[in-house]
Design brief:
This protein has 32 residues and is mainly alpha-helical. The protein has one helix and no strands. It is rod-shaped.
């Protein structure tokens, strides 16, 4: 159970980081 949970967390973390990146980059371009 713990192993599956860590795998899910790391996968969600990767998705979140990419999502965050693709949101902040256009925002930076719009702000500056």
């Amino acid at each position: 159970m713990g192993y599956d949970m860590t795998m899910e967390i790391s996968a969600l973390n990767e998705i979140f980081v990419e999502f965050y990146y693709w949101i902040t980059v256009p925002l930076m371009f719009l702000i500056h």
